């Protein structure tokens, strides 16, 4: 269950962390394509000055949550993304990033729930279906995993990670031919994929025995 804070409390916390008068370039920094604490500081100053609405802050927080995930700070990502969803309950990107954080923390049931919300709010988001496929994979429901990886691949035909995930599901079901084909496709699409390379080597070694 996500721990939520009130919108007012969220803004108050951020304002305390990033106190200061709004600067002329804060609006540019707030919507910078590169998320980070400087971006949130700028957004918070704009809110404190009455120049930025809560929905705009939600967008900024969602991107900050993604940056925390990328940095491996999953607890902070979960906290920030929970605030985002409080402000924008239909923010599919925030649910998707929550799913990523819970996957990284090996909390697969929560990851499944967040990814399901992400697919509901962003039905064309290939990553959300891939994350749900990954959650199903860890929960050992291989048929559901394959179904979600199928959806991800239909939405993004060159999605190498989805092919790798589906390959793992096929291998666990004993369908080595399909697993081998998917690992080969994944490696062709992304030659740097360690998962695909290791999976392909493993299956080829098993076939040679």
Order of helices and strands: HHHHHHHHHHHH
Helical percent range?
over 70%
Number of continuous helical runs = 12
What is the number of strand segments? 0
* C-alpha Rg (nearest Å): 20 Å
Low-confidence stretches: 1-8, 14-20
Average pLDDT across residues?
A: 85
Instruction: Tell me about the largest β-sheet.
Output: none
User: How would you classify the helix and strand content by structural class?
Assistant: mainly alpha
Portion in strands: under 5%
Question: What's the short story on this structure?
Answer:
The protein has twelve helices and no strands. By secondary structure, the protein is an all-alpha fold.
Structure description:
With 209 residues, the chain is mainly α. It has two domains: 1-108, no CATH class; 124-209, Alpha Horseshoe (Serine Threonine Protein Phosphatase 5, Tetratricopeptide repeat), CATH 1.25.40. Helices cover 75% and strands 0% of the residues. It has twelve helices and no strands. Residues 1-8 and 14-20 have low confidence and may be disordered.
Layout of secondary structure:
Blueprint: H1 7-17, H2 26-30, H3 37-48, H4 54-71, H5 74-87, H6 92-104, H7 108-121, H8 126-138, H9 142-155, H10 160-172, H11 176-189, H12 194-208
Helix pairs in contact: 1-3, 3-4, 4-5, 4-6, 5-6, 6-7, 6-8, 7-8, 8-9, 8-10, 9-10, 10-11, 11-12
